[in-house]
Amino acid sequence: MGRYSGKTCRLILMLVITVIFFVAEIVAGYMGNSVALVSDSFNMLSDILSLCVGLTAARVSRRAGSGRFSFGLGRAEVVGALANAVFLIALCFSISMESLKRLAMPQAIDDAPLVLIVGSLGLAVNLVGLVIFQDCGRLCGRRGKEKKREEHREDREQELEQVETGLQEEKTEKDGAPLNIRGVLLHVLNDALGSVVVVVASALFYVWPLEPDQPCNWQCYVDPSLTLVMVIIILSSAAPLLKETTTILLQMSPEDLPVSAILESVCRLPGVSSVHEAHVWELAKGRNVASLHVKLQAPAGALWAQVSLQQQITQIFHRAGVHSLTLQLELADSDADSSCSAPCLSSSCQKLSCCPAGPVCVCAPPRDSSTEKHTPQACTHSSKL
Question: Domain 6-135+177-249 is of which CATH architecture?
Answer without folding.
Answer: Up-down Bundle (1.20)
